[in-house]
Amino acid sequence: MSETPTILLVEDDRQIRELVAATLEGEGYTIIEAGTAAQGAVEAGACKPDLLILDLGLPDRNGINFIRDYRIWSAVPILILSARSQEISKVTALDAGADDYLTKPFGVSELLARVRALLRRSPSEEREQLEPIIEFGDCRIDCVHRAVTRAGEPLHLTDIQYRLLILLASNPGRVLTHRQLLLQIWGSHAVENNQYLRIYVGHLRQKIERIPAQPRHILTEIGVGYRFQP
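Now predict its structure.
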């Protein structure tokens, strides 16, 4: 982490965003602001912050899915600022990969204390932040813009197909079990539905494999799960 930590603040409410930014800048932090999920993803890829502060109620995208996508290529701590106070909202965000959750309205002192606590995380406790571009065969995944191309042509993937592909591709050579994939993509309610996963893998192979019946990239580990071969 740099001597002056950089914090990315993704919040669509301008007044709250300006208040939080001014508060953190007053403590010596460098603040990058974004009002939408799309802008936040671009800024995250460009500035590689030391901490992400995220509102769940963004106008262009579900904040939970933003967390899941971001977690695939970055281990940077995530602090949620949200008006959603229900326990299920907190549990869902934390399970998706957030590190802490602060409910609006919040006190400035508590906000600063939580920011300091997350920034104290030592490097050994963090996974390496990957480059937000993944390439294999004639395919290219741009994690920032959520875009996939094959031989330079756009591939049109559903949200689930994209998230399944990027989860596999960001773990090259590693066997991901059926349970791991189902939990990460669909949640705990789907962890026993291996047939559901098999169908989506088949659809994905149709789009990225030259010969889907003889896949080179998404390999089946019989009875266990799938392994991605770049």
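The radius of gyration is 19 Å.
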